[in-house]
From TrEMBL:
GO cellular-component term (any): cytosol
A molecular function (GO) term: peroxidase activity
Pfam family for this entry, one: DyP_N
Residues covered by the DyP dimeric alpha+beta barrel domain: 61-145
Name under which the protein is recorded: Peroxidase
Heme as UniProt keyword: no
Length: 441
């Protein structure tokens, strides 16, 4: 078994980190004619960017293409091959809603159309550091389906860096990505050695030493990966009000926000500066992710139930399994900013387009979502959920902050994040796109 990544066959969106600043667009397509769909695959093979040449001036601008299970069916992929894909992928995200915590107002019946339906076949993503370069990338992507009768663009979401450079709740985002052996992208956490490539790209050994299950035939599965796209609406005004009502001063408010997230809004981790913000540390990519939790078992610095510690427990007591659940995350903000200091909701849709990238939908994305973010057993937190992203039950969420002599316990946490839709997709290698273009039924 070789672990040398074939970067020229892997789509850039798999391995390249999100640029900062950024502009992004997501476009969903429906395939009404298999012949047109195959022609689309051939065109996309010439447009999508590969992960090779990371030093190229164009390496931060790319177009990537993914297909849903229904999209592969629409192309005419034989059922014997469709049956080899991960069963979560075959079911689709909407069918997995209960396991993912997408219940109540986040349930698929409330999702934005056509997300979660059989209408979604292809997901095109364009990402760039500038709007001008993004527009050029979108033009290239649009050219692949423009004029193809039987291909319909059915949804679009534009994203952009906010003026603050942070996500809508006000925190620096895009920190904490794992390093991957053979990717050419160095690790920024000395506490975490690079992970095996098979955790993120199919056809290579993963952390178990084995090859992860790969769809057949090999040309279709190799160098591909699974992607989970989610549109997450953020209740910024509600988050601000909760912080204000639960704190005694502006400084106390910022500390409370940091305790819930696990980082100060600047990106500085509580693990390295637990008592005050350090904006210089937060802005330093060589330092703001270089820490662990082994020396803070109780969580006096970083509460065990905070978002950062749940999403990646690092070297804490569950360290033996953490590497099996690591995943690549991409987040891009959408919607207008809520002006600083505003505590009332203005009715505008704002939030994050979230994307998971990994070779194991079940033990990576679904496990973290269900067991770590929406569950608390693994850290002896009972039924408490993530205070930032957790699917709270009717505003009855709780969050405990270890503190001497008596812990501080927050009650009445509402859901600050609501799922507006999502899709499971497969991002094939570039050779696989060409193979799909040559399918015959």
């Amino acid at each position: 078994m070789t672990s040398m990544l074939e970067l020229d066959d892997i789509q850039s969106g798999v391995l390249r980190p999100r640029p900062s600043p950024y502009a992004a667009t997501y476009i969903l397509l429906r395939i009404d004619d298999a012949t047109a769909g195959r022609a689309l695959m051939g065109r996309l093979a010439k447009v999508v960017s590969s992960a090779a040449n990371p030093e190229s001036p164009l390496s931060d601008t790319w177009v990537s293409a993914s297909l849903t299970y229904e999209g592969l069916r629409a192309l005419g992929v034989p059922q014997e091959y469709l049956d080899t894909f991960a069963w979560e992928f075959r079911q689709g995200m909407a069918a997995r809603a209960t396991a993912l915590g997408d219940v109540g107002e986040s349930s698929p019946e409330h999702w934005e159309s056509p997300l979660g339906t059989r209408e979604v076949h292809v997901v095109l993503t364009a990402l760039s550091p500038s709007q001008a370069a993004l527009d050029a990338a979108i033009d290239r992507a649009r050219a692949t389906y423009h004029g193809l009768h039987g291909i319909e663009a059915i949804w679009r979401q534009d994203c952009h860096t906010l003026s603050t450079g942070r996500e809508p709740f006000g925190f620096k985002d895009g920190i904490g990505q794992p390093a991957i052996e053979g990717s050419g992208i160095p690790s920024r956490n000395s506490h975490e050695p690079p992970l095996k490539p098979g955790e993120f790209v199919l056809g290579y050994p993963d952390e178990t030493g084995n090859l992860p299950p790969m769809p057949g035939p090999e040309i279709l599965g190799r160098n591909g990966t699974y992607v989970a796209f989610r549109k997450l609406h953020q209740r910024v005004a509600a988050f601000r009000r909760y912080l204000q009502e639960s704190s005694t001063s502006p400084d106390d408010l910022e500390l409370l926000a940091a305790k819930m997230m696990g980082r100060w809004r600047s990106g500085a981790p509580l693990a390295l500066c637990p008592f005050h913000d350090d904006r210089e540390l937060g802005a330093d990519p060589l330092r703001n992710n270089d820490f662990g939790f082994a020396d803070d078992a109780t969580g006096y610095n970083t509460p065990p139930g905070c978002h950062v510690r749940r999403a990646n427990p690092r070297d804490a007591s569950v360290a033996g399994v953490v590497r099996l659940h690591r995943m690549l995350r991409r987040g891009t903000a959408y919607g207008p900013e809520l002006p600083e200091g505003v505590l009332d909701d203005d009715g505008q849709d704002r939030g994050l387009m979230f994307a998971f990238v990994g070779a194991h939908l079940g033990r990576q994305f679904e496990f973290v979502q269900s067991e770590w973010l929406n569950g608390g057993t693994f850290l002896d937190l009972g039924d408490a959920k993530d205070p930032i992203t957790g699917a709270q039950d009717d505003g009855g969420g709780t969050f405990s902050i270890p503190k001497r002599p008596i812990p501080k316990r927050l009650r009445g946490l509402p859901s600050f994040v609501v799922t507006r839709g999502g899709e499971y997709a497969f991002m094939p290698g570039i050779r696989a796109l060409r193979w799909l273009s040559e399918l015959r039924t």
